[in-house]
Design a protein that fits this description.
This protein is α/β, with parallel strands linked by helices and about 250 residues long. It has eleven helices and eight strands. The mean pLDDT is about 95.
Length: about 250
Amino acid sequence: MSRVFSYTAAPPLGARANLGLVVLQTDETLEHEFRHLIPGEGVALYVTRIASAPEVSRASLADMEARLPHAAGLLPQAVRFDAVGYGCTSASSVIGSARVAELVAEGCETRHVTNPLAALVAACRALQVTRLALLSPYVAQVSEGLRQALRDHGIETPVFGSFDEAEETRVARIDAASLCEAARALASDGGVDALFLSCTNLRTREIIAPLEQDLGLPVLSSNQVLAWHMMRQAGLRDAPERAGRLFAL
């Protein structure tokens, strides 16, 4: 015997906002950190993945351009998004923020699109930052593309350092002690308004507040600025604990 039941409908999960996130296949960090940065009550976060190479080069980053609409199209089609973020700092500097927005909008319906580069530019403007100390995990070719993209937006990176790493798995394993040591060394050079830890695969969430206290500077990271920008685009004013000065804005 089978029975058919009636039901009543619950309100949507995203009563306050619907957020979408396109994460690289090789990224092991972004989703984890977003669970702590994005408010849970009334905010729905939907995640899709995009195929990406295990080693980072300008060519491998550019290859993602053609895959972006398909990746965004795997987000729930019934959801109308307030903001969708593409989670790759370096690829955004290669593809371009405007083009990223076009491609994501081909795949899903969203009011806003951002990425870590666009979010960093917005964060720097909000903080009135024009000179960054930049710490990158990547090889020179990839890092220079990001520095040029920032210069194009009027943001200089006179203090720069990297771990000269191309393999994403190794990037995801760089520990907090190594990040803090490098960050402090860069900040000691002086002449900058803030410090930026580049790459969504870096584990940065737990070191932002301690570094800000030590350095006396705003500390920004790819995951932090992306979460902040998506939230502000969606009209969310929440400020997660220990996420840095940026979330006061």
